[in-house]
Amino acid sequence: MTEENELCPCGSGKAYNACCKKEYDAANSARERLKAALTDPTKAKELAELLKSAKEKQ
Predict the structure, then answer these.
(1) Which long-range contacts (CB under 8 A, 24 or more apart) does 28-35 make?
(2) Angle between helix 21-38 and 41-57 (nearest 10)
(3) Is 8 left (phi over 0), alpha (psi -120 to 50) or beta?
(4) What is d(CA 51, CA 15) in angstroms, rounded to the nearest whole number?
(5) Measured between alpha carbons, how far is residue 9 from residues 5, 12, 15, 25, 33 in Å?
(6) How far is CA 39 from the centre of its chain?
(7) Which of 15, 24, 33, 37 is paired with 5 by a 20 to 30 Å CA distance?
């Protein structure tokens, strides 16, 4: 995304590594774990059921 020593794209004026890098890395890690889970048929079914359940509660 952004070089660590550049200004953060959020506009805070801070360096990227001192501002939003942790959040970006956490979101990217979660996305990769979801992709990995979706390749497992059992986990993909569990995720689909969780999403359906969450939508019904809204």
Answers:
(1) none
(2) 120
(3) beta
(4) 36
(5) 12, 8, 9, 14, 25
(6) 17
(7) 33
Burial (CB count <10 Å: 0-12, 13-18, 19+), residue 42: exposed
Name the one residue in this structure whose structure tokens are 């550049």. Answer: 6
Q: Which residues contact 43 (CB under 8 A, 6 or more apart)?
A: 37
Length of the chain measured in residues: 58
List the alpha helices (DSSP H) in 1-58.
21-38, 41-57
2-31: pLDDT as tens digits:
676 799 999 999 999 999 999 999 999 999
**Cα end-to-end span (Å), the chain:** 33
